[in-house]
Amino acid sequence: MKINVKRLNDNFHMEATNEEGNALQMDGSPDIGGEGKGMRPMQLLLAGIGGCSAIDVILILKKQKQVIESFEVEVEGEREKIEDYSLFRDICLHFKICGQVDKDKAERAVKLSIEKYCSVSKTLEPTAKISYKVSVNN
Fold this sequence. Notes:
CATH architecture of the largest domain: 2-Layer Sandwich
Mean pLDDT: 97
Structural class: alpha+beta
CATH class of the largest domain: Alpha Beta
Number of strands: 6
Order of helices and strands: EEEHEEHHE
CATH topology of the largest domain: GMP Synthetase, Chain A, domain 3
Strand order of the largest sheet: 1-2-3
Low-confidence stretches: none
Distance between the termini: 38 Å
Helix content: 25-40%
Number of domains: 2
Number of helices: 3
């Protein structure tokens, strides 16, 4: 796996591109001179856990013949300052699923993702308490 990060202006606006040519914009926070032209790197970590787990859950539910009409993951993270950096200490994912989906199957799929399959979750697990909740057709 390889990512290229290229600076786009004189401040912190950057573009990350993967080997397939897909790109996303990043920027620093406004308090250090960022201009809001992209997600901040720590926001990308939250997007990463949400996206990684979403892929797992969707794959599991599809294998179980569940019909997903809409799918959303809301991710919230709380950081703790440690010396000159800060770590996520608490991350909560809220899975919002609509369709012909059995709630027990959805909850089981989310549990499997967070506790077993999601590589991003496993990467963040040593420093963050990761919790989740599941809403089906709410």
